[in-house]
């Protein structure tokens, strides 16, 4: 069964949690009106990204079932949609995580805590401790990754081995060294290659704008399970909603490439000891 999905690229305002959530509500309604059943927002879109201290990050953090969740859940229930959004999570023991929540019509379905922290995130957040959960929904089996996780093939592979059909990836992609003028962003290339290698749909929602002197590159994408773009890359400067129709069952049926090869089945874990267990 085909499902319309949306990647929402917008520009959160740092610290303006209430107005950011209002924007998310408006954009979710817009996407739903165009048929989207699954709507993905950027990383830390409720708060903004460029924290100056752990205490500042803590000030904007909420429990996974906090006020933001309650607002989004009511919206999901009303519209019959699923929403993935990034937020700073304050756990019960007051640890801080760069997290993403999956909310559906019936409530909070899953929380992912970013496993691979980028740059000064390591000063404010704890590394994820929930692995790579897979959530079974009516539109397919969903997993979540966040931004820098996309540079680790193990992230996508763990989701695929857990049975995921669709990766929802809130991001805050920044310029990286060596990016050539006019070339496609490495972030989008990695999303495409990992979708191809694992037979997964990837919905990557980035932000745009400049926050506390840090520019963000936009270029959100929706990628087919074969690795080719269904929609995007979006603008590198402007807000934009990408749409695509996907069938999660197709990903499962087509993971067998021919009579002999299925990448997930063809793995050789007995030969991978260094890559999976030995630190550098």
**How much of the polypeptide forms β-strand, as a percent range?**
25-35%
Which structural class do the helices and strands define? alpha/beta
How many domains? The number is 1
CATH superfamily: Carbon-nitrogen hydrolase
**What do the pLDDT scores average to?**
94
CATH class: Alpha Beta
User: What's the N-to-C terminus distance?
Assistant: 44 Å
N-to-C order of helices and strands = EHEHHEEEHEEHEHEEEEEEHH
Determine the CATH topology. Nitrilase/N-carbamoyl-D-aminoacid amidohydrolase
pLDDT under 50 segments (min length 5)?
Answer: none
Count of helical regions: 8
Query: Biggest sheet: strands side by side, in what order?
Result: 5-4-3-2-1-14
Radius of gyration from the alpha-carbon trace, in angstroms: 18 Å
Q: How does CATH name the architecture?
A: 4-Layer Sandwich
In short:
This protein has 280 residues and is of the alpha/beta class. It is built from 8 helices and 14 strands. The protein has a single domain, classed as Nitrilase/N-carbamoyl-D-aminoacid amidohydrolase (4-Layer Sandwich).
How would you describe what is shown here?
The structure is a single chain. By secondary structure, this protein is α/β, with parallel strands linked by helices. It has a single domain, classed as Nitrilase/N-carbamoyl-D-aminoacid amidohydrolase. The chain contains 8 helices and 14 strands. The strands form 3 sheets. Strands 5-4-3-2-1-14 form a 6-stranded mixed sheet. It has a 6-stranded mixed sheet with strand order 6-7-8-9-12-13. A two-stranded antiparallel ribbon has the order 10-11. β4 and β5 form a beta hairpin. α1 packs parallel to α3. The longest helix is centred in the N-terminal third of the chain and has 17 residues. It is globular. The relative contact order is 0.15. The model has no long low-confidence stretch (mean pLDDT 94).
